[in-house]
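Module 6 notes. Inverse folding takes a fixed backbone as the condition and produces residue identities as the prediction. Think of it as a translation problem where the source language is geometry and the target language is the twenty amino acids. Below is one complete input and output pair. Work through it position by position during the lab.
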């Protein structure tokens, strides 16, 4: 991207910002005197009395919409960051939608033909030139394969990569300026936030990656009827074209239609919550764009409805450590054990290690205690998250960019819950799912799973133990160690014996098809390993 192109886009951005008085908003939020002087002295500053009369959140939303797809999606992500923005602004950003004008169908046909290297009539029995939907990254056309299956063809917007590259470059520059000019710039880590957003939007540009996400999610859902994922047609999928099974369902936001079909709304709402927590904690692979436009409902069995998901461009994963701390945090919240919540935040490094747990506990209790045992219609997660972030700010809690998608998805679930069944008790629905995951990943079952996972590698290493012992013995003889050195060598030998005996016992135990009681052979192996550990410590 040339310097002239970048400069031209930067001028466009500043004009739009001044048009909607976003400069005043940025000064107000940042409290930066330097930014205030800069904006006052900027020669291209414009005055628009009409837009200045609108609420500040609405002005920001209109500005982002005018700036195009990259800024629209960035605004959508920011709407979940209640630590960055006040409620009125976040609420307006949450209204941002990818409803953009479709591009010409002839160009869509050309992109499909170039990607699949065949004329459109050879690829499909029929192809609908009128798009079913158009978004900022791609648009969707209906089609029928020659084999008779109804499909949807998702086509990447032409030249969208150049637009995104240009705007991301400017976002990185703005993030650096925010770090310098915003009083909370270091703590809120804007550069990390932009980098996290960059990874997300770049992934959305690859239709094959989205296809892989859909295939993985479909595999994860094989044992449940809560969620259906359409099938991917890999022979027709490339980096700019994605072909999926065409699904039939009612948009989840059409509540009156669902009621007319006599759908069990309460069960549907519970399943939405179950899907979210199952994907996050069991699968560690969750749909991170679960707004109502991407979720449909199958009404074939109204008393047993299930969800159908589309659009898999954004998925989320967490590290094992983050999942552990997150699950323990949520369970502690459910049990109102605020001291454990405070300790977990400190242990995870989310707040500084010198934070007083008792003081942090008191602050968290003040925020959370009023919300428990209330139906969803009386609880605003946005308000709770905002107050929690404000509380965390007092304790210098740094933003965790890896949790951005999770927060976004949780707020989407809140919105779905409010629309579907406001009386839903989210805590009661989520608690058993979390407890089951914690038991399976922190108790004896997790130990057995880890043993089974590592057994093949241990089995490979076990035959090498005698040679390792021989090398230790030879080295000890060659160097003729005496006194403390001799005791150190003996300690190593006993430790190796202990490891070999323990691994042998584990392998015998794990490789058995049934274990009703611990046989005497395994007991002897473990006792011998324990004896060697004792001797190793003695030396």
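Target side of the pair, the amino acids:
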């Amino acid at each position: 991207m040339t310097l002239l192109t970048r400069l031209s886009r930067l001028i466009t951005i500043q004009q739009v910002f001044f048009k909607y008085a976003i400069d005043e908003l940025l000064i107000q939020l940042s409290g930066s005197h330097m930014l205030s002087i800069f904006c006052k002295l900027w020669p291209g500053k414009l005055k628009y009395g009409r837009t200045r009369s609108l609420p500040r959140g609405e002005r920001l939303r209109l500005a982002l919409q005018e700036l195009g797809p990259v800024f629209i999606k960035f605004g959508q992500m920011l709407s979940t960051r209640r630590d960055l923005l006040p409620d009125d602004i976040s609420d307006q950003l949450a209204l941002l939608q990818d409803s953009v004008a479709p591009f010409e169908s002839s160009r869509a046909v050309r992109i499909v033909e170039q990607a699949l290297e065949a004329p459109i009539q050879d690829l499909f029995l029929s192809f609908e030139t009128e798009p079913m939907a158009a978004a900022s990254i791609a648009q969707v056309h209906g089609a029928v394969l020659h084999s008779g299956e109804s499909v949807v063809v998702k086509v990447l917007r032409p030249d969208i990569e150049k637009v995104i590259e240009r705007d991301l470059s400017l976002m990185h520059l703005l993030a650096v300026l925010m770090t310098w000019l915003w009083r909370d710039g270091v703590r809120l880590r804007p550069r990390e936030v932009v980098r996290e957003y960059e990874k997300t939007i770049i992934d959305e540009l690859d239709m094959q990656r989205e296809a892989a996400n859909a295939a993985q999610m479909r595999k994860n859902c094989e044992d449940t009827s809560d969620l259906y994922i359409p099938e991917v047609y890999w022979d027709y999928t490339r980096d700019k074209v994605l072909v999926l099974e065409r699904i039939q369902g009612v948009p989840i936001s059409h509540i009156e239609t669902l009621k007319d079909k006599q759908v069990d709304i309460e069960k549907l709402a519970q399943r939405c919550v179950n899907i979210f927590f199952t994907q996050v904690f069991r699968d560690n692979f969750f749909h991170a764009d679960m707004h109502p436009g991407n979720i449909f409902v199958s009404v074939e069995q109204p008393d047993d409805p299930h969800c159908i998901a589309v659009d898999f461009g954004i998925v989320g994963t967490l590290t094992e450590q983050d999942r552990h701390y997150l699950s323990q945090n949520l369970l502690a919240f459910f049990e109102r054990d605020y001291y454990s919540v405070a300790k977990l935040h400190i242990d995870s490094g989310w707040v500084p290690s010198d934070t007083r747990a008792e003081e942090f506990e008191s602050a968290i209790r003040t925020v959370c205690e009023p919300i428990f045992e209330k139906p969803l219609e009386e609880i605003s997660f946005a308000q709770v998250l905002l107050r929690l972030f404000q509380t965390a700010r007092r304790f210098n809690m740094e933003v965790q960019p890896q949790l951005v998608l999770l927060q976004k998805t949780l707020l989407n679930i809140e919105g779905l819950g409010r629309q579907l069944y406001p009386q839903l008790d989210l805590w009661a629905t989520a608690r058993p799912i979390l407890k089951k995951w914690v038991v399976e990943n922190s108790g004896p079952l997790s130990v057995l799973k880890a043993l089974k996972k590592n057994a093949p590698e241990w089995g490979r290493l076990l035959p090498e133990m005698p040679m390792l012992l021989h090398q230790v013995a030879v080295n000890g003889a060659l160097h003729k160690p005496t006194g403390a050195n001799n005791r150190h060598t003996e300690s190593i030998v006993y430790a190796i014996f202990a490891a070999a005996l323990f691994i042998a016992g584990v392998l015998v135990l794990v490789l058995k098809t049934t274990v009703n009681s611990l046989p005497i052979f395994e007991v002897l192996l473990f006792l011998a390993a324990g004896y060697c550990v004792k001797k190793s410590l003695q030396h």
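Reference fact for the lab report: The chain has four domains: 1-94, 101-134+137-246, 249-442, 447-538.
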